[in-house]
Structure formats: structure tokens, C-alpha cells
Fold each of these.
Amino acid sequence: MKSSFIVTAATAIQSAILNHESELESLDRAIGDGDHYINMKRGAQAIVDMQPELAELTADAALNKIGMKLLSTIGGASGPLLASFFMGMAKVIKEKSNTSLTTYASAFAAGVDSIRQRGKADIGEKTMLDVLIPVANQFTTLAAQSASAKEISLALTQTAEQGMLSTKDLIATKGRAAGLGERAIGHIDPGAKSCQLMIESVCNLIK
Amino acid sequence: MKKFINKVDDILVESLNGFALAHNDLVSLNLDPNFLTRKQKAANKVAIISGGGSGHEPLHAGYIGYGMLDAACPGHVFTSPTPDQMLAAAETVHAGKGILFIVKNYAGDVMNFEMAAEMLPFESATVLTSDDCAVINSTYTTGRRGVAGTVIVEKCVGSLAETGADLQTCKALGDKVNSRTASMGVALTSCTVPAAGRPTFDINDTELEMGVGIHGEPGRRREAMREADAIIKDVTDAILDALKPAPNSEALLLINGFGATPLMELYLIYNTAARLFSEHGIKITRSLVGNYTTALDMAGASVTLCLLDDEIKQHWDSPVHTAALRWGA
């Protein structure tokens, strides 16, 4: 992975967040406290502001820097969780010098695992992990089968979408919506939605 | 939205500046990272740090001072503060006996304080407050939310820390007070997060939200508006069910306003709640009525009952000198 790709991805992620303001806001107003969009917007802006600095770094250093910045910028639950993702990913990228798709898949899986540990959550709890865990699993499987980057990005986009939609029928057992009981049913989890958007926008960059 | 605002992005800093100016005999403000400390650093005691999203004022900065907190870390509105704030605050107030974090039980707050504790170069412990009995507790969920009962925890632990008690003793008292405290809130209106610009939830004039959280997150039930006694009876019943107090228990009763309910109504609620609890054989011997843990401009209130023992009573009664609570000092 080159840091130039990370820089491009940051812009793509920011546009995806900004383009879904009303959707993210209304999802969080329904089962949260209405600040998810504002926090994600603030985080994305902070990373875009660092682009010149990131471009000078190695990929693992850039991912670590992004993690630390998100940790001190976003707050809430999303801050530590997304920070853990990027820092978990950075560790694998640093250890493995090759730039194969299997390395990226294991880095992504390590990032998702860091989120799982930090949030003490798992699949089926109406959180971002309902998107991230299926995507990580599929990424690992397809990379092991030597699928092309294009095939993988198309598949992951679809899986992320399905994972996001799957949160609609779940009762939340983690996060702010956990107090709602059955009233959370029928609403997509805002964190799952923003993760799906981020994955989709990065996958769209891969031709 | 109609609020006293210059620019939405400047609300937090302008409000913190105002607070620090108004109480410049008590607190010092540091910006970027944002934290407030006592004006006079305390020596040779456990340093107590709390924090959380803004919008709950006077929680937590209003409780900085002798007999309560050493520092507070305000996050953005309804958003937990970040670890760099806690680390910088801890560096400033650490007085050789470790850091005790008092954290309201929300996923974001827990994670940010947890990461701060992991990075901290000092010994630390954490008291998680979880007094909101509107949320059913379960090992599989995040658990009960921390709400107005947090003020009682901060007051008692703060008092104990002034005596030079060690970190684990302070934590143990905090955990004890929390386990003997239960709260439940009712909202009559929503609140409006300034950056969002519109009410967090829709509620009409004939409805109330039973069990609402202090961020305007929906409670368990939407109910028809009715007379105060009937509303408060549901609240006190939930609290009694959560605490299951023994007959003749002595208790502190806190009626907390959410920001847009007049004191006149809060005292009316006190009148009803005190009567209902005493009908269950509870002796209310301590009280607090006012806006202590708010939810921006929400109309509504919460009822908190804390079951007292001699130790809790002693630390509740001891002198305190903060912007929002002051007696005996």
C-alpha cells in the first residue's frame, strides 16, 4: 500500500460522509443521540487536513497517524473504535513488507479484530461490526483464492451493503441504542451505515 | 432552533471561557486539549478526574473544587472527551497518589477513558456510574447508563479523597455509592443539539418519554401525558424495584431538572416523590433539588434515590466548595 492511496482514500471517504449528511443524521436521531454525522464529519476533515503530511510517510506510519488523529478528534465510541482499526491495520502492514492482497486482507482483519476487542462486541449486536466482520472474512477468503483486486472490491461493496441492511432487524445489545430494546428494530445502525459508506468509497477507487 | 449562539462551532469554547471567567476563584481552563482543573492544585491526595460530553452543565466542571473533583474533561456536545484530554488533565493534577476516573457508563466514555488509563504513566482506577434504572441491566449489553446519581458519587468520593485515602479505598466508596443509587428520568420535550439544529426526537404535547436518557436518547416507552402524581409514581416504583430498600432505610432524594423545567415544578416533583417513598417506609433525610445533570434544553426531570449509610452520610455532609455545590466551606 502506498501512502498516496491512503491520501486519495481520505478524500473519497470524506465525500461519502458529506454526501450522506441527512441520512446519517436521521439514522442517529432515530436510535442514538444525533451526533454521529457531526463526529464523522469532524474526523474526516481532520484527516483531509493532514494529507500533505501523510503523503510523506510510509503506509504504516500514515495509518498510525490517522488512528491517533481520529482518537483525539472524534470522541464518542466511534473515535476509539476507528482509531483501533487503523492502528491495528498499521501493525500488520509494518510487519509484512510485501504489498499483496493477502497482506491487505490480513491487515483489514487485524483492524476489525482491534475494534471487536476495544468495543467488546461481536456480530449481531447492531453495530459497525455487522458490516466489518463479514467484509473482513470475505476479503480474507477471496485474497486466499487469488481473486483480482477488482473482483474483491465489487464483492466487498456488496457484502458491506448486506451487513449494513442486516442491522435493521436487530435489537441493539451494544452502544447507545442498547437502552431501546425492541424499539431499535426497524432502524439501520448509523455506525454500520457510515462503515458501509467508507468501504464502498474506498472500493470504488479500485479499478 | 433559537439559542444564544454566535457560531455553532464556537459554542463549547465560548461557554468554557465564560465558566472559567465566572468562577476564576475556583477553576483554571486549558484549551486544546480542553480540560479544567482546580485553581489551587491539591497535594498528597488521589486526584479525581471526571468528564463526558458537554450539554449536561453543571456536570462536570461545576463540581471542580475542594471536596469534589480535581479536574474535568468536557467533550463536544453529548460526545465523550478524547484520551489526550484525560492524559493532559492527569499530568496537571496528579499529586502522587494516583488518578481516579469517574465515568458515566456509555460505550464512548468507557472506551476513551479506558484508552487514557492504558496510556497513563500513573496508577489509576475507574468508577463507572450506572444509576439509570430505566435501562435493563444484562451481562450482554452495555448496561445501565450513568446519569444524575453521578453527582452523589463525585461528592462522596471527593470528600473521602480529601482525607488522604488511597486509590482503592476511594474507588470502593464510589462503587458502593453507585450500587446504592438508582435514577429514572421523564422527558416532556426533546432537546436540540446545536450542531444538529433541530430536536433529537419528535414528541407532541400529549405525550411524555418515560425512562429518557440525558442525551435525549429515547427511553423505554412513549406514554400519554397525565397528572404529575401518576407520572412520578411510575418513576418511584421503578426506583424501588431497582433498589429494593429495606424498611426504614435512610435515603437522599435528588430531583434533577433536565434544563428547561422550572424549579417550581421540580419542587412539586419532590413533594410527590418524598411522599411516595415515605409510604414505602423510606426515611428521606437528605435532599437536593435543582439542575445538576442537564440535557441541554430538554423539559423533564429525573428522580434519584441514594440509600445512605453512616459512611455515605458523612461524605455527603462534609464541606464542599465548587461552582455548583457549596456548603460548609
Amino acid sequence: MKRSTIDLWVGAFVAAGFAGLLFLALKVGNLASFSTAQTYQVQAKFANIGGLKVRAPIKSAGVVVGRVSEVRFDNESYEAIVTFNIDAHYRFPRDTSAKILTSGLLGEQYVGLEAGGDGVMLKSGDRLRLTQSAVVLENLISQFLFSKAAEGKDSKDSKDGK
Amino acid sequence: MAERALLAGLLQGLERLGRGASAKIWRLGFAARFFGYMLLHSGTAFRRFGLIVREIYFIGVLSLIIILVSGLFVGMVLALQGYETLQRYAASEALGVLVALSLVRELGPVVAGLLFASRAGSAITAEIGLMKATEQIAAMEMMAVDPIARVVAPRFWAGVISMPLLAVLFSAMGIFGGYLVGVHLIGVDEGAFWSQMQAAVDVREDILNGVIKSVVFGVAVSWIAVFEGYDAPPTAEGVSGATTRTVVTSSLAILALDFVLTALMFTGGNAR
């Protein structure tokens, strides 16, 4: 008699534990968005990848179409080789360009794809030709400062010339 | 004369230190042998699964209230404190990420483990120690019943099974508490709260590693609790001392193991 009530409680406890795990996996984690769909790999060379990390999203027109699967340094060209895993549902022309962008001002970095106009579609193992590196804030600031300084000098020169 | 007395005192101190250290090492060896023996004789416990189910009731189900209530409050406090800091950087939408990651990776397993050690571990030690003090264990041996297989192993396995479930429920409850405070009390956007959380929490990296942590803590706490109970001097003071040692040792073990596991699990990926 006593035994069956204990069994009921223990069963409810274990069920609640698994329900909690399911809640964590589906509602809190990203198991639902895990796609078991087929993917194809495309590589791209970047002069500078900034803070791009493995598993960063690849977006086209704002829609996530894949994830970065590998980041590697090329010893010959001294550039970064990034491998993209793109969902096989999404097809892109061969002259698609890749940019490394930042979501928000200080957000994480992602790869943006912009489709070209070529009739031939990308297939697994292809390499993207047109790439644009990440914007490095320090370079941007120094460029700005140098151009400001040059501007100041120019206006001073022109004043002197008068 | 004075030098000789000083030397004798020094020697005595050294001797005591050495005896203390060797006693600790002797005890550690016994604990390891006990662990191995218990694993080898767990077959009986699993064949009579009712024994484990009964212990899960006492260890797991009766700890539910304290785990759920603490989880709810920890999540609510996290949301309040996190919001206070995040809004300075105009990033209050990241509140869900902060609450979920800190609970799933660290606070869930660790705080649930500490509560488990003080709520269930102490009870296991006291029960086994008292059985020893009242010579029930000796009586079992007389009847050719192996007390380790009959008394110790079911409690150990019940602890190992209960601990991850309790930690998961703690984390889930904490995230629910964070949701209540963050979305309904403070007014963070509900869609951003959940979607940023889902984007940042990885099932394998974060949730699975948290569960692995809680399993490790479950093994450590249950092992310490049953060993302290089995090794307790069969007196009233002996049992009370063993109960205290269970809580202190297992709390320290949880925190130390947590550091090691975090260093193994989370820093490797981020450094790359």
C-alpha cells in the first residue's frame, strides 16, 4: 500500500526532471533550431576576420542560412580561410560576395552573403572570390584622425598661400 | 636543558603532524577501497530496484521543495541584479542570456549540489551512522546480508540519480523566476528575452556540460555521505561529527570540482 504511493512520487519526480531538461533544451537552448538538414561547404579568404568565431551565423538578407564551421590561417597567402556550412536548401550564384559584419555597434560578428548574377550555382568545395574583411575599429579611427589632420594642414596651407 | 625541551616539543609536534597526515591518507585509501567495493556490489541493488526507488523518494522527492523554492529565488535575484548592471550599457534585452547561462553553467549544478549535500547528504550519513551505532549493520553481517550491497549501494545510486534531476529542475525554476521578474516585473521585452537566450545557449556546450557537472557532484556528494556514515564512530558524538564532516567535505569538494570542470569545459572553447 505504502509502496505504490512512493512509486508514484518517484515517477513524478523523474518525469518532472526530464520535463525540466526538455524545457532547457527546447525553450532555453537552441535544439529546436538544430537542423539535421544537408549542408554544403564553401570557403572564402579574408585579409582580416576580426572577431569572427566558429559557429557564427551566416546571413543573407538578414536570414540565417548557415554557420561558420572552421577558421584557419593560410601559411602561403597569410590570410584567413573561413569555411561556411550552408544549408542545402539555399542556393547562391557563383559570384556571391561575403562580408564580415557586426550586429549592432558592439554585437557579435557574422558573415553576410550578397548574391551575384551568375547563372552557375555554388557547389560544395567552391571558393568565394569576392570578400570584404571585418572593419577594425582602431584602423577606422586612425584613418579618420589622419584625414582630419591632413585636412587641417591643407586649410592651414591654403591660408598661408593667401 | 631549555634547548632539549624545545627539541622534544618540536619532535612531538612533528610526530603529531606525521601521525595526522598518515591517518588522513589511510582514511583516503579506505574510502577508495570502499568506493570500489560498493561499485562491485551494486548488482544486488539494481536487481532489487525497489530499494533504490525507496531511497530516491527520501533523497530526491523530499528535497524537491527546497530546490524549487531556492531556484525560483536565485533566478529572481539574478534578474534584478543583472538588469541593474545591463541597463547601464543599454543591453537589458540580454537579461535572458545572463540568467540562463549563469544558471545552466554554474549556479544550477553548484547551488543544487550544496543544497543536496546539506539536505540529503547529511541525512544519509546520519542514517547509516545510526544504523552502525545501534548495531543494525553488525546484525546484517551476522545474517550473511552484505550491508554495503543492502544499505549503502542503494543510497549511493539514489543520490547519483537524483542529483542531476534536481539540478535541472533548479535551473529550469531559476529561469522561470528570471522570466517572472525580468518580463513581468521590470518589463523587458518578452520576445527578446527568449530569442536572445536561445541564440546564446548551446545544447551541447552549456546544457549538457551543466548536466555532466551535476552528475559528477552527485557521485562526489553521495560517496562522501555514505562513506562518512559507514566510517562513523558508533557513538552519538561520532555520528554528529560524521554528519558535520559530510556537509563540510562535500561542499568543499563541489566547489573544487566545479573549478576543475569549468576550467576543462569552458575555457578551451573561448580561448580559441
Amino acid sequence: MWHILIMAGILLCAIMAIRTKRLLVSAIWLAGCSALVALFLFLLGAPEIAVVELSVGAGLVTVLFVFAINIAGDEVLPSHPVISRPLAWAVIAVSALLVGWLLVPGVNVAVPGLPESQLSSTLWQARSLDMFLIGILIFAGALAMLGLLADGKKESVES
Amino acid sequence: MNISIPVVASLIILGLLGIGLYALLAVRNLIKIIIALQIMVKGVLVAFILAGRLQGDMATAQSMALVVIVADTIVAVVGLALAVQIRRHTGKLDTTALTTLRR
Amino acid sequence: MATTLLLLTIAIPWVGGLIVWLVGNKHASLQHRIAVAFALLAGGAGVALIPYSSSQIVVNLPLGSVFGDFTFVADGLGVFLTVVATVIGSLAVIFSVDYMHGEDQLGRYYAMVLFFIGAMSGLVLTSNMLLVFFFWEITALCSYALISFHNDDPKAVAGGIKALIITQIGGVGLLAGALLLFAVTGSMDFNALIANPALMPAKWLGIMAFGFLIAAAAKSAQFPFQTWLPDAMEAPTPISALIHAATMVNAGVYLMARFYPAFKDVPGWTTAVLLVGMITALMAAIMALVSNDLKRVLAYSTVSQLGYMFYAIGAGGIYASQFHLFSHSIFKALLFLGAGAVIHSVGTRDMRQMGGLGKQMPLVRAVFIIGGLALAGIPILNGFWSKEMVLEAGLAHAPIWTYIVMLVGAGITALYTFRCIWMVFYGQPQSEKHVHDAGPAMKVALIPLAFATLTSWLLAGSFGKLLGPETLPSHGIEISSLGEVIHEVLSLPTLIALIVIALGLAAWWWRGKLTGLSNALKGIGKAAADSFGFEAINRGIVKGTQSAAEALRATQTGLLNWNIFGIIAGLIIVLAVVIFGG
């Protein structure tokens, strides 16, 4: 019962995030979606990831979006889309149907019990390369952001 | 209603992915497109954890999900920085303003 | 020893090309000397390889299971074509010393020529189908680069691109055949297929056979791909002599001859080869008759003689076709180099502005006449023996009406040859030009070729032994002495052929009296001048391709949403295939 409510909540938040015209409100809906997804992950049996997702998705990313929206401006654009809405819905429905055809029958099995948590040992030994990769990604992302935003500052200072 | 948890999870996955893809198709505002990417990645996260739960191997699934969260955050950061620059250079956040393939 | 020599025939020209390019265009005379030296060394290596020819694999570079082993076999067919490529290549390079004197960018020129010579040797010596395709493409690249050597001349560039496109379309047939061979038999070595055609099921063998026929017809400028060779005459004349007369265009004939034992039982294949050769021979002979550009006449003549070689292969006379290839390389290179000497001193290619040049260019006139007599098939020159063998093979194994068409073609050949020689060297001078005879380097190149034209038929016996069962076990070439060749040629059909050739010569001599006939045939002449509509077909294809591209431009919008739509559409197709394709 709770799962179905959470599902409904997630889908509602996602739809509202896309439908609203104002970008700031959209970011808030995204935060709500993140929180509900974190809750669902917790119920699925992944508490550590749920915590990370909550803090990153509902916290860090939302702050980022608010920051960027404040810099970039919040105007409302004319909205006749490039791909007409019915066509987009049709295409999405068809592909969701096909993926569902493949996915849902295979998934409808009994859920095995939750094993003992070995996350930290697995993370740092078996998947140490992944951790290295995460470090590189963060470094690269920081560099990219500095590079992209610094140029702009220099340019606006000169002009 | 007795829908089992995996089926609910699959519906969440399909729903999030579908809504994100729809936005990628039908939305012209760049920042909304980045929001759509975030929505899609949340669907992927649920998929990873579901797969891990069904296999009984939560540790591997959570490590992969961690990498995905970090990567996706970086994508959001870089994407937003790009959006800000595009706003500065072309004056608007419209995808149709980005194309330079003219006759 | 054979291994070293074989690899040297490929490596020496390639290294030479690299060195010439690195020397730089400031040291032009050094570039000339280095190019000649390396070309001669390659020629020496090629000739030295002859005693080592056998049907055994000489070089074997194992490269794992994906590409098979890179193998090279020095069998008779490969060695003979290597000798042709390297020796005539060295003569063309020697000729270039005078012809390209004072031109700039010689580094590019010589590097491409030497690169080409090495690639041609590799093409005929390898027995790995993938390497055949690789060397085939390298020769196409060098041909394009050399045709458009004067890249500030739009005609040259257009000619080069046309040659490239048409031969690459043929290359698709070669690649398809090569991949089929690999997919069906699991190995890229074609000697296994030639020894035992039953290795491939009949349907795939048929596809492979016709794919190779298309590739060979495109490379050798046969019907319906013949339009690129006349436009390739924008290349410098030593290039026309080397690539477009003596070596590259022979690659198609080589391919057909090499794979004949494998494909001869494919239904309709030999007939197709026969018809392609016959139609080309006749059509090109007529087009040569009405052309006024000296090099174009020779180009059409090359196409026509290659048609004779295809005809011989279709009729089963492999020895005849290769013997004619041998003679043709020699006398056609001679004719082209002679024409080069003429063009270099007169400054134009239009024969209507020449005339009476014989007095001022006696040596060139002499060698040109020797080459022309060989082309026409006059007795004791090498062209006579080989052409008669081709006609004999046709008489024995091909339908009689094709033989008659080829006979008529031989008569027309004599006619246009005589016309060409007359318009250039005899008659009244059409324009006041002071011309000089050929330079020393040109003479050094021309005289050995003229000598070879007179005497190369004497090697017929050794040639037959080279191509015999020791080196080519599946081809069934049984000729082993000059006496056999002479015996076969001196017979009644030869007499008839000689009468037809004499008629052709006489038709030009008494052309004044034949004006009635020539007026009646004016319609055909006009069609021939328009290349029988093939240029119009080319233009139509180009226009069609460009308008299709313009129409498809609408799908490239540059819009993010549209591109994502394309991605999702692809995803749906993939999913549908996965779900419903089973």
C-alpha cells in the first residue's frame, strides 16, 4: 500500500516538474521527487544510497539549480514544441510499452531476503576502481565548472 | 490491490524514464531539459537497486548506484554552467537558437 | 632468397618514394636521380624473381585468426605482372626525367609513382584476399593522385575524381567477394578456392564471380564503366603510359585470369566476360576512330585491347589473354611514351594541329610506327602473335558471331592506328611549330621498348613455361615452346584476319574514294563522339545523387529535440526487433 502511494507521489512530482512554467517551481518539484525516490530506495533495502540520494538529489542539486536559475534568468518561453506533443506522447508510450513487455514479466518474482550489509568492504576493495573513477569525475567536474564560469566573468569584466 | 514490490518498482522506472524522455522531446528550455535528465537518472537508480535486490547482491548495486549519482551530479553541474554561458552568448535558453545549420 | 626478392619488389619502391619525398623539392635533380635508381633496383628485383617462381607460399606473416595469414606466393602470373610493373615502371620514371623537367612538386609525383609500383607488385604477388583489396585500393589512390597531379587544372581534378569514384564502385564488388570467401570458407587465402571451386556453395560462388567481374570491369575500364579512362588522360603522359596502359588497368584482367579456374563453371559467367570484352572492344575502337585528341585515341585503344583480353578469358584462352597483356603493355607503353614526346615538344594534344612531324622527329616517328604496327597486328611484331592467339581462342570456344565482331574490331583497330600515325607524322604541317626530337632520357626509355616490341614474342615458350602447371597448377596452361605458338598462329583464320587488317589499312589510304561510305556512317560517328550516351548517363547519376542529398538535408536540422526523437525512434526499432524478431 505504501509503495503504491510513493509511486503515485513520484510520478506526480515528475509530471509537475515538467509541466510548470516557472523554473524555480520546477526545481522544487524535482527536490520533492528526489526525496520520494530516496524513501523508496530505503524501502527497497538500500539505506546508504537512500541517504546519499537524499542529500545530493534533494539538497545539492536543488541548490545548484536555484543558483543557476538565478544567474540565467527565469523567463517563460513560447511553448510550441519542436516535436508536437501528441507525437511525443505516442512515441514515449510505444517505447515504454515495449520496454515494459521485456521488463515486467521477468521481474515479477519473490523478493529474496535482505543480506547482511557488506557495503563498505565491497566499496573499498572490490570496487576500488569505481571509487577512483568517482574522484576523477569530481575533479573534472570542478575544473569544468571553473573553466566555464570563469571565462564568463572575465568577459563580462572586460566588456 | 496486491501488486508486488518489484512491479511497483518497474512502474516507477518506466514512468520516470518516460516522463524524462517526453520532456527531452517536447521542451525547449535548456534548464528544463537538464531537470529532465535528472528525472531519468533517478529512474535508473531505482532500476539498479531493484536489480541488486533481486539478485541478492546489494553491495555491488549500491556501489554502482553511487557512481551514477556522482556522475549525474557532475553532468548537472557542467550542464548548468553551459546553460549559463549559452544564456550569456545567445541571450536566451532556447534549444532552437542553438542550431547553426543554415542553408 | 625468394622471400627477400619478393619483399624487395614491394619495399624498394616504397622506401624510394619516401626518400624522394623527404629529399624535398629544392633538390630536383637529386630527386630525379633517386627515383630512377630505386625504380631500376625494383625492376632488377622483379626480374631476379623469375627463376624462383613456384606455387609455394613464399612469405607467411601470421596475424591471428581475425585476418588470416598475410601470404605471398611467387607464382607465374604474379611474377610476370611484377616484372611488367617494375620494368615498365622504371622506363616510365626514366622518361619522366625529361618530361617533368622543370615542373614543381616533383616529390609528390615521384613518391606517388614509386608507391604505385610497389603496390602493383604487392597486388599480384599476394594470395590473401584482404591484401588484394588493400593493394587494389592503394593503386586507385595513387592513380587519383597522379591524374590530378596538376591540381590547379579543374579538368585534371575532375578526371581524377571520376576515375576514383568509378573504380571504387567496382571495388565494392571485390570487397563483397573477399568477405564472402572469408565468411564461407573461414580463410582469406584464395588458392584453396582456385584449386577446389566446390569449397563454396554455388549461390555464393556466383555472387562472388559476378562481384569480381564488376570490380575487374570497373578497374579495366570495360563496358559499362569505360568512361573514366579517356578523362584520365589529363595525367602527365608517363603516368598514362604506366598506370593507364601497362599496369593498373591490367589489374582487372589479372583478377579474371587468376580466378578463372574457380569461376569457369558458374553459369553465365564466361558468357558475361565474353560479352563485356566484345562490346567494349568494338565500342572503344569506334570511339578511337572519331577522336582528335592523340592521347584519347590511345586511351580508347587501350580500352579496346583490354576488351580483347577479357574476350580471350571468356573463351577460355588464359594463355592467349596473358600473352596479349604482355605484348600490349610493351607496345602501348611505347605508344604512350612516344605520344608524350610529341606532346611535350609540340605543346598540344590535338592531332588536327599536328601533321608532318615525321621529318623533324625521326626517332619518335620510327618507334611510334613500330608500336602502331604491333597494335594493328602486323606480322612479326609481338602484337600480331598475341592478337592472333586471342582470335584463335575465340574461334575455338566462343560463338562464331562474336568472333566475327572481334575480327571487324581488328580491322577498325588497324584503321584508327593508321589514321593516328598519318595525322601526326605525315601529311602537311597544320601549324607553324618548330619541334625538336625526343630528349636523351626519353630516347633511353623509348628504344628498349621498341626493341622489345619487335622481339618479345620470341619469349612465348618461356612465358608458357612460366605460367605452366609448375606454378599455376589449376589454370591448365599447356604451352611450353615457341614452336607451338607459331604452329597455332600460322593457319587459315590468321590469313583471314590479316586480310581484314589489310582492308582496314587500305580504307584509310583510299579514304578519298570512300567518302560515300563515311557519310553514310556519320550518324554512328556522332554517337561515338558523344561516347554512345555514357557521359550522359554519368551526368544523370551525378545529378540524381546530388538532388537526393539535397532532399535528405531536411532531416539534418541541428535541433536537439529532433535528434533525440531520432534516437528514440532507433530505440523503438531495436526493441521491436528484439521482441518480435526472435
